[in-house]
Design goal:
CBS-domain; 3-stranded mixed beta sheet; 4-stranded mixed beta sheet; alpha/beta; about 140 residues; 7 strands; about 45% helix
């Protein structure tokens, strides 16, 4: 089974210079735990996840500093740079292997340098659960 068969083609994203507050609000409204971070041309630069936000908030210190973080800090300052990528024609087993070894929850799917989807642990589990048997 190929990554393209399992991936989610809609990728929620935010531009790198957006404030952290906008990213947090978008994640909450979209019910996702991470956003692709892109440049003005839609090229993938990184990802910002709830873990990145929580880490930045814990490092900020007091309440005033945390409030400042959400309003004055840009996503690019807290994002995870160089997220893992995979091609749509790759085998789902390879995607699962990469996520396992890198201890990440998702891989961005790129084709010819363009973001075309995202495959997550949830996507893989969903495929396994629907079929009732291991199909990868």
């Amino acid at each position: 089974m190929k990554v393209a068969d399992v991936m989610t083609p809609r990728v929620f994203s935010v531009v790198a210079d957006a404030p952290v507050s906008a990213a947090v609000e978008y994640m909450a409204d979209s019910h996702v735990s991470a956003l692709a971070v892109t440049d003005d041309h839609g090229r993938l630069l990184g990802l910002v996840s709830t873990s990145d936000v929580l880490r930045a908030a814990s490092e900020a210190g007091d309440r005033a500093a945390r409030e400042q973080l959400f309003e004055a800090t840009r996503v690019a300052e807290i994002m995870t740079a160089r997220p893992l990528r995979i091609g749509p024609d790759a085998d789902v087993r390879e995607a699962a292997r990469q996520m396992l070894y890198a201890d990440v929850h998702r891989l961005f799917v790129e084709e010819n340098g363009w973001l075309v989807g995202v495959i997550s642990q949830t996507d893989i589990v969903r495929v396994l659960g629907v079929s009732g048997r291991v199909v990868i």
